Amino acid sequence: MSEKNQSELTKKRKQHSDLLELAIVFAFLFLIISIYVPRAIWDEEEKYANQSQFHMENMFDVQSFYKSIMGEYNPDGLWATKVVNSVRDSLTGDSTYLGEQSITLDNKTFTVNVPKGYDIEFDTTFGFPMTRRDTVLDTTATIVMFSEDLSRNDTSYVQKKRLAQFMADSNFVSLLEEVETERVEVVNYYDSYMPDSLMYFCPVVEKPYLISVKDEGNAVRVDSPIEETVVRKRYVIFAFKADNHGFINDGTKSWDR
After folding, report:
1. How high is the mean pLDDT of the chain?
2. Spatial contact of 83 and 112, defined as CB atoms under 8 Å apart
3. Cβ distance 81 to 200 under 8 Å?
4. How confident is the model over 80-115, as pLDDT tens digits?
5. Which of 15, 137, 190, 225 has its CA 20 to 30 A from that of 172?
6. 3-state secondary structure of 98
7. What is the pTM of this model?
């Protein structure tokens, strides 16, 4: 074989080798994409489903609060949200805002009947239970009291905030010392929020939830507005899909079954 032919053969082999390496790289990239992209899409689908169901829960709770102050449900979720939020705002400014009260919204004046504990129930319903650790500084006092049961003086330890109460007692003898202490206290609380107009709409199709009054006005149902599966292309060969997110019928959630 001539030197020229040998050179051309070597060149062709190198080209084939380069193409093979390139094909391997593309195959590896496609493998990575085929693994991680569907997972990301599934996470996105789950996120929207959870968000939509959270919105439905809020719309059902809004209806429950609306009925507690108006005596009936209202299929207009936006109006119901305005009313229950307005009552909560009024209680923030005036804790005696209870019983029958006149309220004006959007140039409409009507009467609401606010039950006692409305604000507490509102904040716990529209809120996330949280815990925190607070560092508390305290002072412990060592005192001597005469014990009638023991017929002698007895040493006791009390919080400084209660010291005046003991010192006023006729059996108080003396204060020995005061010692500052530091302790960690676990506090349970609710991170409250106000339901807003965005919760009235499905995050996927941006249509309002279907609110219907049932059982002669004694029950309410909240349905997802998605009628057919929503399909949106992702990266040409993949797709985001969202089916109907369920319903809440008189407090029963379809997704808890």
Report:
1. 89
2. yes
3. yes
4. 999 999 999 999 989 999 999 999 999 999 999 999
5. 137
6. coil
7. 0.74
- Residue 6's pLDDT band (boundaries 50, 70, 90)? low
* DSSP for 52-95, written as a single string: HHHHHHHHHHHHHHHHHHHSS--S-HHHHHHHHHHHHHHHHH-T
Nearest to 203 by CA among 233, 226, 231, 235: 226
Q: What is the DSSP string of 155-172?
A: EEEEEGGGHHHHHTSTTE
CA atoms of 165 and 168, how far apart (whole Å):
5
The more confidently predicted of residues 151 and 110 is 110
CA-closest candidate to residue 75, choices 88, 66, 87: 66
Count of CB atoms situated within 10 Å of the CB of 51: 15
Percentages helix, strand, coil for the chain (3-state, rounded to 5) are: 45, 35, 20
Q: At what angle do helices 3-70 and 77-93 cross, to 10 degrees?
A: 70
DSSP string, 175-231: EEEEEEEEEEEEEEEEEE----GGGGB-TTT--B-EEEEEGGGTEEEEE----S-EE
* Cα–Cα distance, 118 to 201 (Å, whole number): 25
The span from the CA of 123 to the CA of 6, in Å, is: 84
Host H or E run for residue 238:
strand 238-242
